[in-house]
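Take a look at my tokenised protein here and describe the backbone shape.
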Amino acid sequence: MRRLQEDSANFKWWVFGTIAIGTFISVISHASVLVALPTIAEHFQAPLSTIQWVIISETLAIAVLLLPMGRLGDLVGRRRIYLIGFNVFILAAALAGFSRWINLPTLLVAKVGQGVGSAMIQGNAVAMILSAFPERERGKALGSNLSVVGLGAIIGPALGGILVSIWGWQAVFLVNIPTGLFTIAATFIVLGGSQVGTVTEPAERLRFDWLGAVLSGAALLLLLLLVGNGHQLGWTSNVVIVGALGFLAIFSGFVWWELRTEAPMLDLRLFRSKLVTLGIAAGWISFLGTSATRFMMPFYLQAVLGMSPRDMGLLMIPPALCLVVLGPVSGRLSDHFGWRKFTLGGLALSASASFILAAWLSENFPVGWIVVMLMLQSAGTGLFHSPNSSSIMSAVDRSRYGVISALTNLTRNSANIVSIALATTIVVTVMGLRGVEPSLQAVSPGVSGAFILGLRWAFGLMGCILLLGIVISYLKGDRPPPVPRTPRPAAASESSRMVQ
């Protein structure tokens, strides 16, 4: 029965549906916690600067462990690491939910644990989906997965608000227990006897690069901490300078080791491929140029336009729907028409939105146009992401899908952090030069002029960054045209049909 199901045309969608449930739960969990932060701060009587580590600790754990967990999945089986990750995720969610009766440090430890589990899930989920789809449908698979992520981003805040209002903030963690157990059961039922997610690496290379994992994790942790706190510490402070030198030393050691070890965690020779190198660069630039908009807009909408959190949440639904709809569409079309036109078009849409905001954003900018600009930028992301990821995967052997899919996730996460830090630095610097307290928390109608000017400079820079992404995507090239089939003699064709 299992064999028939795996050989059927629908089996790939059974795999996708099973993994999509896990992805959906992971995204909803993160988005719902954001809504619960004010209530958590009130419960523990802690300032926002401390409570924000509920999110930061998980994000850092994911970023540091994505590459090692993706590589580990390639070596010992992606399904195994994926399932272990969900068990870790559930246990950490239970600890977070019961931390209400313990203390805040317990909650932070639990969120680190959820980050560990999420890294194991995210580092292998996409690779398992791609393993179930034929190469000619790679874009379709990636686009459909992007749609699931977008849908989770829409439902997460609304669900979080409902859970917090009815059962309290601990409910956003405890709800992960039954949903996670359901996902584990579904994974066993659908994938239990299949080859999806099993070991694909040659036996002679089944060694995990522990030193590479430590070096990459340390370099990433140091980099993200520096970027995330540089505007507060001062970019020319001794702490930042020493940290930057430490990052360069650790990163250099990582590159040196990966080029010399026989079984590297991340085979840097893969970057000899133009599709991999330029695809990763374009992907990083895409998120670098767009993530700051989603972070900054709530400050503008609430502090300048005086909108309520509920109304802001409603405004974010149309942009998210653009991502849900266009992700699968661009993925499917890129399978047939190539990558370039979609990656270039997507980046052009996002850049246009940034330049329009940079030119005309003001205290009286119509809310409707804000929604249109956010939709335009989300549409650009939806058009770009799936074809670009498909182009990267096309240059990689299936045995490396885990570590490369983890690398693309890491690209997104790190670019998000750098984008927010860069935009925040620009905005608070402009506010300081205008004689206003250089802090986003100080934004109010009385100082909105300096804040908006800083936003316009930030959006202008983001647009220029996206133009650079357009150049890189153009240089990356496009899918080569299919080789025309040579007509076969009638007799040969008939013989082939008989064999089939």
